[in-house]
Amino acid sequence: MQLPPSSGPAPRRPSAHEAVLAAAEVFIRQYAAENPGDGDPRRRLAEVTAEVERFGTYEHTAAEVAYGARVAWRNAARCIGRLYWNNLIVRDLRHVTHPDDIAGECFEHLRIATNGGRIRPVISVFAPDRPGRPAATLLGEQLVRYSDDPRSTHRVALARDLGWKGGETPFEIMPLLVQPGSGLTPELYEVPEDAVLEVPLTHPRHPGFAALGLRWYAVPAVSDMSLEIGGVTYPAAPFNGWYMGTEIGSRNLADTDRYNLLPAVAELFGLDTRNERTLWRDRALVELNLAVLHSYEQAGVSMADHHTESRRFLAHVDRERRHGRPVPTDWSWIVPPLSGGATAVFHRYYDPEDPELRPAFVHRTAEVPRGCPYGAA
Q: How far apart are CA 75 and CA 349, in angstroms?
């Protein structure tokens, strides 16, 4: 088959400088539109252009970092908790670069976010990448993870290669791993006890549930995503909200590739597991989720239920559309993994997810992205 003649040379790819400037201009104009009292964007664009032409990148103001982090949450298509995006506490830690100091600030992040159980949404933004100088990163999905969680297998192996002697008991907290830069050996730090609040799981109607010995932590601080703002990448920017109960009860503890506890819960409650038509999985899942919600409430730790948060998400959609802004949404993530059809978010169509939308939280690995500071499985 004869191919048609070429219509001309391929379009020229923008240089690194041009790409940064283009992203910066979009961001600066967006920032100015939503913060009209902060001056003429033309002056700021001239400053940014001069910086990029000289250094290949530019430095955000503190206000731009705070705005960018909050809008990244607003843009997170897989997060049901975006109603609270503008309440995110932004810790500008761009000056903190040594692994020891980064680890210390991560532990302080957990203390601030925990807040005695009244969880606060927090992000800690460390130094950005610069041309030819990758910044430090955090290795691991969250600041707190358990060593016996199947999701932790690779991180446990890495920690042991670095000399960690733990990981032999159930629900043992993994150390924090800080990689100073690309190709450099990670540094290992034990997480202080006072930085992590854990909740033992009990059931409101079955006293024997406590004998399962289950617990979970209070703050889901996502640590394996980069924050991208206006052409600048912050590879270490851990962020959190508070949990929605189904993230723990329907995913962490129930998924077959995680703790896979539905058979144990079914046995505890005497459910008939001989065939699927008894709906034993569904009944065990409800009891497990009920135990999670009950336990966090008894412990005084913030947690949302999936019915309430579904209604709040629709309030967010309505509010954003009144501002003339789209609400990119991944339906498969917004609909909860328990009783999805009974929640308010099920029977709706939403604005499609836009992978090019910025500011954004962007996954650094090939793992499934979470993208939700409100909580993460």
A: 17
